[in-house]
Amino acid sequence: MITLQNPLDMHIHLREGEILKSVLNFSAKYFSGALAMPNLKIPLNDTNKVLEYKKDIENTTKELNCEAFTPIMSMYLSESLNKDELIKAKKEGIKILKLYPKGATTGSENGVSEILNQKICDIFQIAQDLGFILSIHGESNGFSMDREFEFGEIFEKIAINFPKLKIIMEHLSDRRSIDLLKYDNIFATITLHHITMSLDDVLGSGLNPHYFCKPILKTPKDRDALINLALSGSEKISFGSDSAPHLESNKLKQNGAAGIFSAPILLPRLCEIFEKNNRLENLQKFISDNAKKIYGLQNIPNKTITLTKEKYKVQDSILVGNDKIIPLLAGEVLSWKIKDTRN
Ligand code: DOR
Ligand code: ZN
């Protein structure tokens, strides 16, 4: 048995409308809080849009009877952001900016084309002065397996030029990125899928579109380096699932949507992995304590989750209208199960 205090998921796609209603309970029941990504159909690129979405999430948690959940909000960084808007956002409690390179992934059409141009650097300067955290989907537009590595030099330049700006490398996928954590102001999130799977799970025995995501799953060596980093409890690392639900119909279209829906299995599967590697004692840091420090989340209301070593079968799908979403490890049996949740 293990008891976890205040689990936090520092990178999640909760979507909107019907999908939000279908997926939110998986996070809101078992996590104290989660950082909601702003890449909606209309990107959340100003304060009002972010606040409206926050209300949507809060209303949905009420409908689902899981109100003991704090949505942590982020704002989509685009060239049109200015100082007044950033001051307004900060006043409203928004402290995370999410930067997508244009075209890098789902919902990044309104992202930034030239990350180090003057306009964006001015935004970084204001963000630094106001104490924002800059969260980045770090991928170039080069060869898929090298995209994160190639982006490394941009991380370095931002870290050096804005030494007081906290930068988060989202969803680490390449072992060559780990070295960048040597910069005092660079931190990272790590997903469940990047520490447990490799490219073979996507295309090693037939094509599995449900395991296609950005950044793409990489080699077993990358996976093993990242799992060791997560298991170490390093204070530089927070858990961020990047759970990203897509309707099956969109997954199966020729231009398959990128994203893995992992929300239904996160805590049991993490227990399984940390136990298997004899590191259960570090799970609390990975799942909550580190994030609290990095993002300054000391005042999140209390939530205690107890898990036991019991078999638990992952559901095959989650119905959404006439369509469905297929979760990570659909139909498989895990060896840990959530026993109890207390607020
Ligand atoms: O696989 C991904 N899916 N990576 C992202 O960066 C975005 C996400 C989504 O929104 O579907
Ligand atoms: Zn994401």
Molecular structure report:
There is one protein chain. With 343 residues, the protein is α/β, with parallel strands linked by helices. The chain has one domain (2-342): TIM Barrel. It is 34% helix and 18% strand. The chain has eleven helices and 15 strands. The strands form four sheets. Strands 2-3-4-5-6-7-8-9 form an eight-stranded parallel beta sheet. A three-stranded antiparallel beta sheet has the order 1-10-15, with helices on one face. Strands 11-14 form a two-stranded antiparallel ribbon. Helix 3 packs parallel to helix 4. The longest helix is centred in the first third of the chain and has 17 residues, at 47-63. The chain is globular and about 55 Å long. The two termini are 18 Å apart. (4S)-2,6-dioxohexahydropyrimidine-4-carboxylic acid is lined by residues 13, 39, 105-107, 137, 213-214, 242, 244, 258-259.
